[in-house]
Amino acid sequence: MTRARTDAMSIGHLADRLGVTPRALRFWEERGLLPRPLRTPGNARRYDRSFLRAAQGIASLRAAGVGLDEILRLQRTLGAGSTARLGMRGIGQSLEQVTRRLEEHIRHSQALLHELHTARRCVAACTGCDGKAFDHGCITCMADLATPELPDSLSSLLRGATRTELESH
Question: Considering 5, 14, 30, 146, which has the largest number of Cβ atoms within 10 A of its Cβ?
Answer without folding.
Answer: 14
